[in-house]
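hey so i finally got around to running the thing on that chain from the lab meeting. sorry it took forever, my laptop kept dying and i had to restart like 3 times. anyway pasting the input first so we r on the same page abt which one it is
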Amino acid sequence: MKRFLCCILCICLILGGCEKPQNKVTSSVFIPKFDDQEINVEVEDLAMKSLEKTKTGEFLYEDICFEVENVSTGLEYDFKAEAAGAFCVTDRSVLYSKNIYDKVYPASTTKLLTALTAFKYGDLKSVYIVREDNCGVNVPGAQLCGFKMGDKLTLEQLLYCLMIYSGNDAAVAVAECVSGSVSDFVAKMNEEARRIGAKDTHMSNPSGLHALDHYTTAFDIYLIFHECLKNKQLTDIISTKSYTAVFKDINGLEKTMEMTATNLYFAGKKQAPEGITVIAGKTGVTVAAGYCLIILSEDAAGKQYITCAFKSTSYDDLYADMNELLKLCK
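ok and heres what got predicted. didnt touch it at all, straight out
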């Protein structure tokens, strides 16, 4: 046990150094926790060899990717996104990376962590009563489901509204439904980010509406998305192309809300390269964050990939960037 811990400490010190530049990671090593009885010589040897493994961009463990620097594919394409990555989940390899450890604003990709936290701490069948119109969200141009004070929805319905339509009022409702207050819920979000190794992430709200202290990296969102995909119910929600919420208003009258996914692949407005099927994903856009997208896709052979692009300059550029990443997955 002592030998194993010493190995891990040495690796962290060598790769991370004593200090790192603020908001940028030059290397990332995340070692999973093991119970004492699970530690063995093979695991220790893997830990000792991790320095060599990082150079290849391999996954040492099932859920952890080691990446040291940008990975080029020799493409002549000029990505408009300021940060981007392509990861083969099946082979556990890095196909491409650009500035994946640089600070970015996540916009509504934040909602992946919101949903992940809600699944951990909430009860999908619990009923939430909307406390004020639009759940108090009054930011001009913010995406809203348009909830009215007194509307009654289950947490499960709110999560569909959150992930399919990307409602910022739904984000507030989820937070209050699960934790009673947005601040308490956001604290849980940050705890969850740290738990899964997203150590360069700090969220200040559950929606992704812009704030200077609300930031992440492309790599951290990759980790958060990868964690979401472990949960089948959550994956089903993220994979849904359209949804109809049926709920009661303050007077007990039935209301129906129909919504289509903000993912333009799902909406049929953008097409993935031939041979690639988009399975799940999350969009995001604010002035500061630019246009953001992370998706799970599958090729004709059944291999799965996670690709992401952050701070692209328009929807057209974002999906052009994503299609170039997806071409690497064929």
